Every structure is written in C-alpha cells, then in structure tokens.
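The records we work with from here on pair a chain with its fold. Taken together, the tokens spell out the fold as the letters spell out the chain. The record below shows the convention in full.
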Amino acid sequence: MKKVIITGSNSGFARSPLRTVNEKACLNYHNNNNGTKEKQMKNVIITGTSSGFGLKAAKDFADKGYKVFATMRKPDGKNAQKKAELEGHSARHIKVVDMDVTNDISVREAIGGIIAEVGAINILINNAGIMYLGITEAFSIAQAHEQMEANYYGAIRTMQAVLPSMRKAGNGLIINTTSLVGRISPPFFSTYTASKHALEGYAQGLRYEVSPFGVDIVMVEPGPFGTGLLASGKAPAHSEVLATYGDLSGVPAAMGESFAQMLQSEGAPDPQLVVDAYLALAEMPAGKRPTRTVVGITWGVDEMNTLTQSIQDRILKEMQLENVLGGVSC
C-alpha cells in the first residue's frame, strides 16, 4: 500500500521526441547558470501550508536547507497558530506569507514581493486545494466554481506569477499536486475531479511549452491520505435535489466515514510519502524529472499513465511539433 510510482521518465515527457530548434539558445540557458544551477535551487514557494502535505513539506524543505516561503490565508488571523508553528520550526528557513490563491491581486502581490526579496524562485509547489464530496447534481454552480478557483485557477495564478522569472533565469521547477482522481472519475467527487482533470491537462501542455527555457513542470498524484482535506469540504447546497435521490443520498457520507476510518487505521498511507516525493523531485537533475509521480494507493493510475504517455508522444509527432518544442536534451 505504501509506495511511490514514477511514470513518464525515460520514455515519456522526460524523454520525449521533442527537441529545440535552436541548440545554441539551448546551450545559452546552461551557460547563463555558470554551472551553479544546483546551488541556486534554494528558494521554494509552497501553497496551502496551514495543513496537510503543505505543512509537512514546509518543515521538511526547511530542514533540507531550502528557504521556504510558506503561503496560507490569514496567517495573522485564523491561521496564526500555524504561522507560529512553522516559524518556530525554523525562523531562519521559513517565512510565512499571506496569500489567497483564489485572488489575482493577492497572488500577484505576494509572489511579486517574494521575487523582489530573493531575486529568483527556484521551486513552486502548488498544494492548496479543497474537496467536496456528495451527490453531484446537488452541488450548486457556485460550489463548482469554488472547487475550480482553489484547485485549478489558483494553480494557474501562481504558475503565471513565477514563470517569467524562471524562464529568464533558464531554470525552475513547478510541482502541481493533482490526484489520482485527476486521471479517473469515481462517483460523488465530480466537482473535485473536474478541477484536477483540468489542472492535469493544463500542466501537461504547459510542460512542453516551457521546457525550452529550462523549466520543468511535473505532477504529483496522491491517492487517499489522512490529511483532513475531505473533512473540510462542504455539503451540497441543493438539499431539495438530495431528497429526490432516496437512499442513494446517504452513500457519499457513508463513503466519507469509511475513508476516514481507513486512513486513520494502522497501515494507512503516510502523508510523509507525498512530501518525500516533492523532495525527490526537487533533488533530481533538471530535465530528468518524470511528468507524473503516483504516491500511495494507485488504483491502476500508474498503469494508465504508462499507456497514455506513449499516445501523447505519438500525437505530438503527428502534429509535427517534435522540432518546435523543447525536450530534456536541452
């Protein structure tokens, strides 16, 4: 049950048929780093650090010597205790930053301020997110928007905020925390899975586009973990719809309770596995990182990734893009 599976390494995006047209430009990206890329990989932004994977990741990256900018909402309000916990863990290596990924201005000002302070962001870990479980039809459009804002548009905001400086520097790593359900679609999670499918699709295409600039974009796909994400979700807004589903309306709650018990039991997947996957990706050489890393219970997603990767690569060949976009040989 406890395992990390990496797919798409030497036969997928990480060894895609894509190559840059201008090899001289490619060489310049390396020369601009003056052989110090690994030393520069020290500044990391982690979103959603008030709980779960983000909280653990902020501490572990700090312990490894990274300068961590741990973002969360209301660090001087409802999350003041979490701010104190993180800065108490390592005042030298952790700085808590007020940022709401669902707000354009908040993201722009927070990340702009970080870049102004340290000059370059080497790693962005998109971890902030919310999950709603319930009868899909009973969720309101507003609730669907909430899922997309936090899980999809929020990640786009942060990526767009860091990419200009990463491309200019000729290096960078963006880790998007998606989910197994970003690849499959179980019932009762539809608003959540839609947001994760969207992020997977966006990140997969963007990975190709920024690779000529020396920037890696990858996805970590956790299975179920006991992080409290499910418990923090909202119930469907349309109770009148629930009433028409009869006994089926109670299934999502029962499922949630079953998951909670399973994830609290002995032998349940340890959230540390996801943080370890983040760290492993951060320490890998640029251009060698796999597109997707499945962590914990796999539900066959690792097999799906292996199958679809070859199809994805073939499509790009058929689109005649192999000589336009960059690959890891750059």
